[in-house]
Every structure is written in C-alpha cells, then in structure tokens.
Prior knowledge:
The protein is about 65% helix and about 0% strand.
Amino acid sequence: MDPITDGEKTGAAGAATSSLEPEIHHLAHRESWFAWFDRPLTGTCCVLWWLVATLLFVGLVWILGGPHIGDAAESTYSTWAIAHGDLACAYPPGTSFNFPPAYTPGPFIAPLWPLVSGGLAAVTGIGHHAAFPSQRALGPGCSTALVAMYRWSVRSGAIAQTLQLGYVAWLVLMAGAVALLRACGRGRCRWEPAALVMLACAPPVWMPLLQFFHPQDIMATGLALGALACVRRDRWVWAGVLVALALTSQQFALLVLAPLIVVVPQKFRARFVGATMATLALVEVPLLAITSGRALRAMVLGASNSTVVGQMLRLESHVPLGVLVALARGLPIILSATVAWCALRKLGPAVREPLPLLSLVATSFSLRLVFEVNFLYYFMPLVVSLVLMDVIRRRIRWYLVIWMVLVTLAFGFNSWDFDPTSQPWGLHWRVVLALSLLAAALAVVLVEAVRARVRWSVVASLVAAGLAIANLPPRGGDGVLHPLPDWLWMLTLLVAGIIMAVEPLISLALSRSSRTWHQSGPARIGQASPVAGKSASWARSALPRPAALGYVAGTATGLGEESGDSGRVPAL
C-alpha cells in the first residue's frame, strides 16, 4: 500500500477543517459570549445584584396577585401560636367547628417554617392591636385553640400580614444558590447575578407562594443547596446540619439526603450522619415534648393528606392510603439512592464534582414528580437545579427555557384561582403573562424564519404552548377547551425534565468510557472513530471551557495525532 504523502495529508486535513468552519465559528462565538459572564464582580456589585434579584422576585409575585391564601392554614395557626409564646398549641388537635374555606386547618407542615415565621411575626408585631387568646381561651390541651386563633385573626386581620412573610423564603433560596455557585467556581462573577435573575424570573420558583402558599418548599430547596455547597468544600458536619434543617422544613429533602449518604467518603460518613441526626433531634424532640406528641405527624409526613402514585399510573381507589403514601414517598428515595450508587461505581470520587453532584440531586427531584400528583410548584426544586446546572456548565440551554415556559403554561393556571387576599389586578396579569410567553415564542419562530434557519423544535414548542394556552381558565375552575389530557402533558414534560437532569451523569460516564477506549491506542489518519461524533457532542455540551473548540477541530482533522492525543476528551 502506498504511503500517504504530506500533501495528501495536508489536503485531507484542510478539507475536514473547511467542513467544520461553521461549527468552529459557532463555538467561538458562543465562547466569546459566555466569556463575558466570566468577568469578576466586586463585593458591592454582588450585593447590588442580590438586591435586584430580590426586588424582581417580590415584584413579580406582587404584580401577579401576591401570596395566595391556598394552604396557608397548614402553617398560620402554628405561626401565630409560636409568635405569642404558646408553643404547646403550635400543633393543636382538630375540631368540628365549621371554618371558612380559607381558614380551614388541614394537616400541619413540618416545624421549621412555623418557627421562622413565628419569630418574624413576633418581631414585626403582626396582629398586635388585638389581644391574643389567653390560655383559658385556648382550652385544656389546646382543645379550643383553633377556634380562638381563627376569631383573633379575623379581628386583627393577621392573615394578610402573615402571608407577606413568605417572601423571606426567597432569601434562603438565594443564599443557598450563591453558596453553591461560589463553591463550584461560578460565584463572584457575572454568572452569579445571571443565575439569581433567572431564578427570580422563573415562574415555577414563584408558584410555592402564588399557587398554594408553600414557602417551606422554597426554604427547603435553599437549605439543600447550602448543604451541597458544604459537600463541595468538604464541610461534612455543616452539610449534615443543613440537610437536617431542610428536612424539618419539607420532607422532600430526603431526596437530597439519600444520595449524599451514598456518595459521602467512608471516613466522613459517620460525621455527616451524626450531624444530621443531632440537628433533627435538637429541633424536633423538644417540640414533640411540648406539644404532647401532636407534632409527630407533621414531622414525618408533613401536610400531605392524600397521595396518588403518578399522574400516568392510576391505582384503584380501594388501595389503602398508607400503601399509596409509602409507594409515593419511598420509591423516589430508593431510586435516588440507587442512581447515586451506580454513579459512584462508574465515576468514583468524581461524582462529588459540581456537575455530577448537581445532576444527581436534580435527578432525585425529578423522580418525586413521577410518583405524586403534580402542581407547578412541585417543579420548583427541579427547575432550580437545572438552572444552576446550566450556569455551572457556562451556558443556558434554550430548550431549558422553553421547557420551563411549557411547564408553566401546562400546570400553572388550572389551579391558580383568585382570592380576596390577592391584589385586584393579579388575575389580569396572570392572563397577560401566559399570552406574553406565547407571543415571545412566536417572535422567536419569526426571527428564525427571517434568518432562513427555522428550528422545528421551536415550532413544535410554539404549537404546544398554544395548546397549553387553550387550557387557561378565565377565572379558576377547569380549562376552556382541554385539547390535550393532563397525563399527556405530564408524560411529555416530565420525561423531558428527567432527561435534562440525568444527561450530565450519562455524558460523563460515556466520556470516561471514551477516554478508556482512546487510550488503548491512537487512531489512524483517516480512520473514523466510532465514538468521535459522540465525544464531540459531549465536548460541545459539557466542557466548561474553550477546550471544546480545539477538541472538535482536532478530533475531526486528526491534527492532534502527532502528539498521540487524537480524540482524547479533556478531563474535567
């Protein structure tokens, strides 16, 4: 066989490079754009951007109607009792009194948010102009506490002021996000305010306040992010403390605790678990003793009073509620621990690096959506994880933005009713929001058409957005047209969310296999690598630095072969 001449080799490389010029130009443009976000910020600028993000979050929630009274009765009675020092009545027994719908007490929530909001209510003097019920009015064993506190709240108007305390949960979420970004090397630069502004503008992040008043969900997510930041800094005691506090806010924090127990180094596991258990005991045991054990259900199950295993899987109504709760709560935890174990076996200690760690937690949050009835605020932890995951990778995926829009339109309005505590213009702006999202999607398609580069995935998203708008009710209740069933929305959007969450783990596992294959021997010039396309795709999507450019060009042209690095994926 005739040897390949230098001229033929140079010509082949030149032809391959020419064919890759559009891709290389696109990557260069993207890197130059994202490099702008890498510029550092001073401490003063960071604080100013924190203020901007907070004002955005509070302003958007206020414009859209303010915190919804929804499930507020799950926490307000506990808040008022704690604010006035009556901790024994923080979890009062039930009563047969006929409350108005907005004040009907349901199962109470875990204790952290009532403790925080109760302290804030005491400091701010909520309802102070009306005398709080005496111990005699609360009754022996707090038997009449619910009725007495309800009548006090009507006289004092405390409910509207108590709902405003929900904004404080955003501060916890913002603090956790900043801590995690700084632990992962994306803090103190323009990526930090970009992430906070995107979170403040993401509708699923508002919905715990706007839809049913669940500030404890926002607080638990922020504490979980803080725990991940401590994991990145090898501060395992503080990681255990923050995970435990997240558990005392909302039980879905078990989806963070389970994979962390798996991936924690063996020598630090006892320290991590011990700190978690000690913090739980410190918060919950005294409250259990003071309330004569009435807080136990709230600590274990939270406010859930019914559970259906999956929107797509309908079980028969005769299945006991306890079995449904065990399946809906237990299976996601087991699956998340299993995914963590598989990731640890495949990636080793690298599973605690920023991208795989956050991907693991995002996957755990997505598993919760598979097994429970879903409202838009259930997507909040997953959305926060996906946004931060993109920032860590130095990019914002356009299909993540479209996915958030579709999730908002599909699940954000069917149960988004209007109540007297909301601002009068809130309902109008909710409809304007939906139509604005649809108009923005249409504008993207028109711009793409003018550039003669229509992305059919964008067109498909626009059609889906239009179908979601048809579900928009003019004032609560059910949708108008119902062109698509709920289970189809759930199947489509939930699968897409799971794929976005687990994709970094799969990509990193494949890249490790690719490195092992390439290290077995350099490829010959002109010989197509069976993993070159897959590796190049991973480099373009996962590499958080400009090395993707040289990798794409070098892999396709064989220019890196002289040094024996052909097709080798740079290590993270």
